[in-house]
Amino acid sequence: MTAVDTPPEAPDADADDENGDEKTGGRWRIERRLETSWYLEVGGVVLAMVAAILTSSILISAAGSDVLESFRALYRGGFGTRDAFVETLVQATPLIFTGLAAAFAFRAKIWNIGGEGQLYAGAMGAYWASRILGDSLPSIVLIPACFVLAMLMGAGWAGIAAVLRTRFGVNEIITTVMLNFIVLNVLSFLLNGVWQDPASFYAQTDRMSDAYQLPQLLSSGRLHLGFLIALATAALVWFVLARTSFGYEVRSIGANPRVAAYGGIVSNKIIIATLLISGAIAGLAGASELLGTQLRLQPGISSDFGFTGIIIALVARLRPAGVIVVAIAAGALRNGATTMQITTGVPAALVDVITGLALVFVLLAAVMVNYRIRRPQTDG
Fold first, then answer.
1. What is the rounded CA–CA span in Å between residue 226 and residue 124?
2. Which of 33, 41, 79, 324 maximizes the CB count within 10 A of its CB?
3. How many DSSP H helices and E strands does the chain contain?
4. Dihedral angle at the C-alpha atoms of 188, 306, 274, 93, nearest 10 degrees?
5. For the chain, domain boundaries
6. Segment 160-212, tens digit of pLDDT
7. How remote is the C-alpha of 210 from its chain's centroid?
8. DSSP assignments along 119-165, one per residue
9. DSSP H/E element including 30
10. CA dist., res. 18 & res. 100, Å (int)
């Protein structure tokens, strides 16, 4: 517990006698700053990015590639052309959802590591809705129905961890991670059984009707309505956290659960509600990816979107607007990795290393910005 959480103890009289006239007493301590200015936070993120780029440059150079040309290729693949930028937004869409899901839970210090599994549960829910409804209804009915069932499935999958946490005290980190593997095995069972496309030997469903296809936002490219839904979800998450009493309770539990309990906030109810909402948002990612780009449920519908969303939430400092920006940057990295590999021969997997380095340096910067090392002063 840091010094800001508890008042400093009164100086020991015997210690004062031993120290004599020393003006500086006690040991060096790490203390949380009472306030952190915005320019310190921005400066910390910029410094972290610079450190990540410099470290990545060393790795690229060690791989035998030209550093500047590699970064140019990475930029061209992510933002260099209109088509590249559009595809970056396509890649960013599920990352915005999973980043928001993680950020919402983390604001209450609920460590939902199950965004990947909840995404798959949402995709399964969307496909299940299509099997129930068929294609006789208009898209304006079918698509919202898929999203609703996807949210319910994602929330339900997260709700298992919520019940285990509140009823039996099981750590949600363990349960959400384990549930990721369980849902993948359930999906594998379905795709090799009742949901398998009878005309294919692959573990996948048949192609869904075009009535379920999300509308395209541009005349060319794959950018679909899911991107706008993701932006609207970010705005809604911000509003709930910043402008509602429920959001205040979420933030209070995240800041100090004991103080929140003294204020009459029932933590178990907030934990359950927060995990359900977080799971529902992750479920939207599964529905968006299924209906927006693939229209076929298969094991590889997610490229680790759930796990990457955790990184995005942390780098964005759990802020919805920051999640959008960081998700687009992560989408650019994913999209530019192929161009970088083709142009310079740098392995595309190195982009994952760069992303991981960015996370490490941002977290270190957060510690530097929010904490300080000082030696307490005494009056002796």
1. 17
2. 324
3. 14, 2
4. -110
5. 93-319
6. 999 999 999 999 999 999 999 999 999 999 999 999 999 989 999 999 999 99
7. 30
8. HHHHHHHHHHHHHHHTTSS-HHHHHHHHHHHHHHHHHHHHHHHHHHH
9. strand 29-32
10. 55
